[in-house]
Amino acid sequence: MKPQEYILIEEEFGAHNYKPLDVVLTRGEGIWVWDVEGKRYLDCLSAYSAVNQGHCNQRIMDAMVEQAKKLTLTSRAFRNDQLGPLYKELCELTRSHKVLPMNSGAEAVETAIKAVRKWGYEIKGVPEDKAEIIVCRNNFHGRTISIISFSTDPTSTTHFGPFTPGFKVIEFGDADALERAITDNTVAFLVEPIQGEAGVIIPPDGYLRDVRRICDDKGIVLIFDEIQTGLGRTGKLLAEEHEGVEADLTLIGKALSGGFYPVSAVLSNTEVLGVLKPGEHGSTFGGNPLACAVARTALKVLVEDGLVENAAAVGEYFMEGLRRIDNPKIKEVRGRGLLIGVEFHNDAGGARQYCEKLKEAGLLCKETHETIIRFAPPLVITREDIDWALERITPILSE
């Protein structure tokens, strides 16, 4: 079929809750994807950082096929031979004490909310049903009802109420605001080390260290949502490492499977996850042997192939090239590793127009918050690939 035929079918039978670029993809390899007419594109979104290891990574694919031939699902009613090794490898890699595997990123966030509330009642002594969790303005943690209950994006909240109570919103990057917001009923602070969906918003230097200190002083749980920023994307395995801090709970997902399968996890100290007892939380597919085998290999690829270090080096090279683009309509180029945002002034006419032109030139990007383009290619990208990309990006963003 022609691309327009696929698009018409999708428009007729699918819910209209997305506004994708009109390209119909059929194949991927490494940093490249191809449409149904055979045109090649450099993927500069990586499925929102889910394919950090590159499209259809052969090692992960082989692990998935091998495990799929043996055992895919047992439920957690029984044990399997992939779960324990994943726990051990994740804990050793991230210096965590405990792991709770789930499927989607939103499920990991929901799991953390449940765990810290229970911790607040049973360990901290917060009165029943009074627990508060502090979050940041312009956050993005998922799309379930409880999660959008603390979103400040009208698109996420309009006509979806009533909402789940128990959340308090403060400004991102303001440690003093966190300290002022904490009460006797506060159980946790949930924050992204870098706000991805908000437009690659990087907090001031020292912010993560400050919030770690405040959470320690006030006796509350620090939760870092690293579902997008984690697993090499920012040039460190976890973005929290840029400031040398560790959260009490760290949430990972997306690249935990290299794009092959929905896998997420809550990484925790023993005290917080220790409050969960049998029957109080779970998932039919969470921790299934297929997911675990895929995740184990996805982690090995990140580490053994040097993708974390590559993200740091090539990301800096990419940002340098983007900052050389001469266009007064560009407000700022910012980022860390291979998570980069190019923000335009409001009078530039929006970022979507540039994404459309980049698509025609062979690069797939996505605008966020109207005025920002996010560049986040797979971590297997090379300097030569970046040169190829900049040759096409520069004239378009210079217009």
Overview of this protein structure:
The protein is α/β, with parallel strands linked by helices and 399 residues long. The protein is built from 14 helices and 15 strands. The strands form 3 sheets. It has a 7-stranded mixed beta sheet with strand order 4-10-9-8-7-5-6, sandwiched between helices. The longest helix has 20 residues.
**What fraction of the residues are assigned to beta strands by DSSP?**
15-25%
According to DSSP, the number of beta strands is 15
Mean pLDDT: 97
| Major sheet | 7 strands, mixed
Helicity, as a percent range: 25-40%
What are the salient characteristics of this protein?
14 helices, alpha/beta, four-stranded mixed sheet, Aspartate Aminotransferase, domain 2, 17% strand, 2 domains, 37% helix, 399 residues, Aspartate Aminotransferase, domain 1
Helix and strand topology:
Layout lengths: L2 H11 L11 E5 L2 E4 L4 E4 L2 H4 L8 H13 L12 H12 L3 E5 L2 H20 L7 E5 L8 H4 L5 H4 L9 E4 L4 H7 L4 E6 L15 H12 L2 E5 L23 E4 L11 E5 L1 H4 L15 H16 L2 H17 L6 E7 L2 E6 L7 H10 L1 E2 L1 E3 L3 E4 L7 H15 L2
Short description:
Keywords: Amino-acid biosynthesis, Aminotransferase, Cytoplasm, Proline biosynthesis, Pyridoxal phosphate, Transferase. With 399 residues, this protein is an alpha/beta fold.
